[in-house]
Design a protein that fits this description.
Layout (H helix, E strand, L loop, with lengths): L7 H31 L1 H6 L11 H47 L1 H18 L22 H12 L1 H9 L2 H9 L4 H8 L7 H14 L7 H10 L4 H7 L4 H18 L27 H5 L1 E3 H6 L10 H13 L3 E5 L6 H14 L10 E5 L1 H5 L5 H18 L2 E5 L3 H5 L7 H14 L4 E6 L1 H8 L3 H4 L2 E5 L5 H19 L2 E2 L1 H14 L7 H15 L4 E2 L1 H12 L3 H5 L2 H15 L4 H16 L9 E6 L6 H13 L5 E5 L9 H5 L9 H8 L3 E6 L6 H13 L1 E3 L5 E3 L3 E7 L3 H9 L4 H15 L2 H4 L4 E4 L5 H21 L3 E4 L1 H10 L8 H20 L8 E4 L6
Parallel strand pairs: 2-5, 2-6, 3-4, 4-5, 7-8, 9-14, 9-15, 10-11, 11-14, 16-17
Antiparallel strand pairs: 1-3, 12-13
Length: 855
């Protein structure tokens, strides 16, 4: 199945037809690029348009002859260039005859042989037919040599062929990018059922088409091979990866290869990038004053400072259409880091790349730096003079779109007559309201609502365009481009799962920022840490960085949710005494939510804990926070008895005027991966209950400043003492747990509205504690005292009679076991501390403490 070398007749066809055709194609590209640079056709179209916007009589008189002179010189240049380009194919054909005439037959033969050898060398691993011009039945004609060799080896012996394919450098790179251990994978696949070679070829052909590749590469065969192995998802899952990671890695490498094939003029797939541009036809003026206080985005794009701008194509199109089709200015609104500057660069790139939007072609997109404008100015008069010079240049040039970032700063200072920005706003306002200059502004959502929206006169000057957070798949593509640069700078390899993990975990745990900004920040931080110590940046490195940034333990970040739920019941029973049934119901409800592929637009789970005081409701919440979220620190606790009045809503959600932030919304915004405990929910104002109804139903809450807070990564627990009397009565009558639950739930349904109760994942009734339960709780609390003493070097044990006394005195039917902690603190802990201060207990002592601690 090996590819045959190129035969002489193929060389003849290439020399007679294909090579001259390529030469003509390159020549035509040269003509297009030359015309784009000298603007010959543009000047022809603008023959009677004055130079540099000078519409005076003198300007018109001077403009026409200069343009005619420029056209004549351009025409002469083209008349010389066109025949030169046309002569290139002729020279190609005449070269052998030329060598024969001046060098003789030997040199002519040597020339042809050398050309043939170069042809063979160049095409030694280039298939005869491109994928786009082939069919799957003839897939061999589009295969690289290594692909054909691998197919041959796989057909002879699948196991050894697979090993040979896996050991290829291209395959090893894909495995490293996918975080796959090649040796372990081969051991699991070596005995896989045989796969038909034709099926592999057809599959590789289809994958090459999917990735827009020119030929079938080894990674396409690798992917097809994996996809044809039974239960490959399970096998890869056992290696902590997936087929999606392999596909993502291959697509990443394919995109880079395709990009490399479009760089140079002589490449077959070369793309003419900058056929648009600015400053052509001698229309725009020289703007030295503007240049001193601005940033020219179109010039930066033309100098190649940025790759293809990703992720804002539709927004770029929308803004460009507005600027092209109307006299309105545009105000771009988006959260910090959402890509407002990227959008501006995208518009500049659209100007440089094409003339799709006629009124934008040949324009400059320039960002005005207000800080630079103010710096050096010692008085308002100097500010006014500097700005006047700048705006005169902008207006006179006629080809400038002026971009002002953080444009709300102009309005923020408008009410303060002493503010420097107030002067700028006053002077810019006439230009903003006229149709002579196009303005593009940018601001954040909060600043728009705070400063611009209330100023109706200012906001009406703009057409508003709000941009949203970028989708996850687009962010991954942006991270791929960023990773390409980091790999060169840091000499590392970034894995594809690391990029996916960056996006997923940042979206899950960092809600105060948006994509792609937060994902790029995480990747930058991780690359800095990994660069000096490791050659591969993998997903565990990303998890460690996010754990550090969010203060969430790395084990919690990396542990799979399903694994947490499998062990949750056993773990919580060790921390919560006497409530096995409640713990079981919580565990079951959590597993049910997870197994049912929980609604990602709602909290992870929500519970209403009902029962008497001091029986373990809060302790259960702490245990759940510690197990699921890594620490009891990740529990947000609110005493709802403090929110009995309607105006207390502002404490939760913040003031409407933005003067103070909401307690609940701010805590969840800064700690989105947490358990929220709402103590004594029945005491809250009914309107506040309606607010939590929205949280339970939609997983989001809008604070009074308009910011949306995400609750989808929280577990919400509300506690209530409703039903206490019924529970105690049934308990005193030695009734069953089922009867206790029925009576308590009846009281709960009488207190709360059905639509509120129906939003909870479960309503858990906690039973009163038995004497044995109280004794176990006492032992658990004494273990904590023992641990504290051990830290001081004192080894303590407690007599059974002390445990008995504490159990009796520390429990009451009204307060449950709540007094027990205070009792142990006042007696046992105080006793040990006093003895230590008196030097009666010292490090190394072994003590057995009894009821003397109660005296």
């Amino acid at each position: 199945m090996k590819s045959l070398p190129r035969l002489p007749h193929e060389f003849i066809i290439w020399w007679l037809l294909k090579a001259p055709r390529r030469i003509l194609k390159i020549s035509s590209r040269m003509l297009v690029l030359t015309n784009n640079q000298i603007s010959f056709t543009t000047n022809l179209r603008l023959l009677f348009v004055p130079l540099f916007g000078d519409y005076s009589i003198v300007g018109r008189l001077i403009g026409v002859p200069i343009r005619i002179a420029w056209l004549i010189s351009g025409l002469v240049f083209f008349l010389l260039l066109i025949p030169v380009c046309a002569l290139f194919p002729v020279a190609w054909y005449m070269a052998p005859a030329f060598v024969y005439k001046f060098g003789g037959p030997a040199y002519a033969l040597a020339y042809i042989l050398a050309l043939y050898l170069l042809y063979l060398l160049r095409n030694r691993d280039i298939p005869r037919v491109r994928i786009s011009k082939n069919t799957k039945e003839n897939f061999e004609e589009s295969c690289r040599n290594n692909v054909l060799t691998a197919l041959e080896k796989l057909e002879a012996d699948q196991s050894s062929g697979m090993k040979w394919l896996f050991d290829l450098p291209s395959s090893e790179k894909i495995f490293r990018r996918s975080e796959i251990n090649t040796g372990l994978l081969f051991e699991r696949l070596r005995s896989a059922p045989s796969i038909q070679i034709t099926a592999l070829g057809h599959g590789a052909f289809a994958d090459a088409l999917r990735f827009k590749s020119k030929y079938i590469e080894t990674e396409h065969l690798l992917l097809t091979l994996l996809n044809n192995i039974p239960k490959i998802d399970i096998i890869l899952s056992s290696l902590n990866t997936s087929i999606k990671n392999v596909i993502g890695s291959i697509e990443w490498e394919s995109d880079k290869r395709n990009a490399r094939d479009r760089i140079f003029l002589w490449q077959e797939d070369y793309e003419l990038m900058f056929t648009g541009g600015f400053g052509k036809g001698m229309l725009g003026r020289v703007t030295p004053n503007l240049d001193a206080v601005s940033r020219d985005y179109t010039r930066e794009i033309s100098l190649g400072k940025y790759k293809k701008i990703l992720g804002r194509e539709e927004d770029v199109k929308k803004v460009a259409q507005i600027l092209s089709g109307s006299k309105e200015n545009v105000l771009v609104i988006g959260e910090p880091g959402s890509g407002k500057t990227t959008l501006v660069l995208g518009i500049a790139q659209a100007i440089m790349e094409s003339n799709e939007y006629k009124s934008l072609s040949n324009h400059r997109l320039v960002g005005l730096d207000i800080g630079s404008l103010l710096s050096g100015a010692t008085s308002p008069g100097m500010i006014a003079e500097n700005l006047k010079k700048v705006m005169d240049e902008v207006r006179g040039s006629g080809d400038i779109i002026l971009f002002i970032d953080e444009i709300h700063n102009l309005v923020a200072g408008a009410g303060d007559s002493s503010a420097e920005t107030s002067k700028i706003y006053t002077m810019l306002e006439p230009h903003l309201s006229s149709d002579k200059i196009k303005f593009l502004g940018a601001t954040t959502v909060s600043n728009f609502r705070k400063y611009i929206e209330p100023n109706g006169a200012f906001s009406r000057l703009f057409h508003l365009v709000q941009i949203d957070e970028l989708p996850k798949d687009v962010t991954v593509k942006i991270l791929e481009n960023k990773a390409d640069k980091l790999e060169i700078q840091k000499n590392i390899l970034v894995t594809y799962p690391a990029l996916v993990r960056t996006v997923e975990l940042s979206e899950k745990l960092m809600h105060e920022r948006v994509l792609p900004d937060k994902a790029i920040d995480i990747l930058n931080r991780t690359s800095t840490k990994v660069g000096g110590s490791s050659s591969i940046l993998a997903s565990p490195h990303i998890a460690a960085t996010i754990a550090e940034m969010t203060k969430i333990p790395v084990e919690t970040v990396t542990q799979d949710e399903a694994q947490k739920l499998l062990s949750i019941e056993d773990t919580m029973k060790k921390m919560v005494i006497g409530q096995d049934e409640a713990v079981k119901q919580i565990s079951t409800a959590l597993r049910r939510a997870r197994a049912g592929i929980r609604d990602q637009n709602k909290p992870i789970a929500s519970f209403l804990f009902v029962g008497t005081t001091g029986i373990g409701k809060t302790q259960t919440a702490k245990a759940l926070a510690e197990h699921y979220f890594g620490s009891a620190v990740n529990m947000i606790r609110l005493d709802m008895s403090e929110y009995q009045q309607l105006d207390s809503m502002n404490r939760l959600l913040g003031d409407v005027n933005g003067s103070s932030k909401g307690l609940l919304t701010e805590m969840v915004r800064s700690k989105p991966f947490a358990l929220i405990l709402l103590d004594e929910i029945e005491k809250a104002h009914p309107n506040i209950l309606l607010t939590f109804l929205q949280v339970l139903d939609e997983g989001k809450l809008t604070d009074n400043s308009g910011m949306k807070i995400d609750f989808t990564n929280t577990i919400i627990i509300a506690t209530s003492n409703v039903g206490t009397k019924s529970i105690q009565q049934v308990f005193s009558e030695h009734g069953t747990l089922q009867k206790m639950r029925e009576r308590a739930l009846a009281d709960v349904r009488e207190k709360f509205a059905p639509e509120f109760l129906n939003r909870f994942s479960g309503i858990i009734v906690f039973n009163p504690l038995t004497e044995q339960n109280v004794r176990e709780i006492t032992l658990l609390m004494l273990d904590k005292v023992k641990a504290l003493s051990e830290e001081k070097g004192i080894h303590v044990k407690f007599k059974p009679e002390l445990v008995d006394v504490l159990s009796v005195k520390g429990y009451s039917p009204e307060w449950g076991a709540r007094p027990l902690a205070r009792l142990i603190e006042d007696t046992v802990e105080t006793y040990i501390a006093t003895k230590m201060l008196k030097k009666e207990f010292n490090a190394g002592d072994q003590l057995l403490i009894g009821t003397e601690a109660m005296e």
